[in-house]
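The instructor's notes for this session suggest beginning with a concrete chain rather than abstract definitions. Hand out the sequence below and ask the class to guess, before any prediction is shown, which regions might be ordered.
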Amino acid sequence: GFVDGGDGADGLAVLFEDGADEVFVEVLVGFGRDFFGGGGEEFGAFTRRQFEDYGRAIMVDANDAEAYNNRGTAYAKKGDFTRAIADYDAAIRLNPQLASAYGNRGLALVKAKQYARAIADFNVALARNPKDALSLYNRGFAKQQTGDQVGADVDALSARAIDPTDASTLVNLGNVELRDGNLGEAESRYRDVLAR
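After discussion, reveal the predicted structure:
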């Protein structure tokens, strides 16, 4: 159910370049930028301040799991997934109950194309917080990348049951409908995203 468009929005748009409805292209290109983007212009002054703030917090208290988790997210926004994963590792070592660190590390692992490890992290995040729609969605994406389409679809539907308004889930469900030939349903899902 997940569109595998490569490493950027252009790969997503290619799926529909043969005269498909502009709605599909608009939603998927935007989704591709959000999901597959990283670093570059998005890494602005706010993220630089985050690095400084989290670095200071870690210097003051080297056992602050939240600071490592948050700095890992700043690294991920920058596109430095190796450092992000290292900070998430530290956060988990300091506080193994910190569900968000598992979800965050899982997403960084997806970006690093380490899908099996990512799925394991999302499983832990979901064991600690079963209502985490984002971890369900991201686990579904990782499952799709490993060829588990059925598992990916189940995760997308489960994420929707938890948060029926989540844009990523709606795009995914549109992709499932599109793949199954239900163009009207797919368009409806994509239009729901555009209406936000």
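Then share the key points. Residues 140 and 154 are 8 Å apart (CA to CA). The first helix runs from residue 9 to 14.
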